[in-house]
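Ops channel
N.P.: pipeline sanity check, posting one input/output pair.
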């Protein structure tokens, strides 16, 4: 979580003191799920660009493939849901 805080602070040009703890916890939880084998891959859905970039950059440093960490913005997630919904009912 310290690495996530530093990454987010540096990429958003903010002090580490004002980076939300929740942001670092999201990266930490995603990593923990992969480390504990409770997930084969994780998807982080956020419009917070520094948070999404932190997840994509930091988690692979622990031996996970880039395709095991997916970052979607709200728009991309809505499009994916829409595609699933349309294909299911056609």
């Amino acid at each position: 979580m310290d690495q996530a805080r530093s990454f987010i602070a540096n990429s958003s040009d903010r002090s580490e003191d004002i980076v939300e703890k929740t942001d670092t916890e999201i990266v930490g939880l995603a990593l923990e799920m992969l480390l504990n084998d409770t997930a084969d891959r994780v998807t982080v859905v956020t419009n917070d660009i520094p948070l999404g970039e932190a997840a994509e950059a930091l988690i692979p440093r622990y031996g996970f493939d880039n395709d095991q960490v997916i970052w979607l913005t709200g728009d991309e997630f809505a499009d994916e849901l829409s595609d699933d919904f349309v294909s299911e009912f056609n």
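N.P.: looks fine end to end. Strands lie at 42-45, 69-72.
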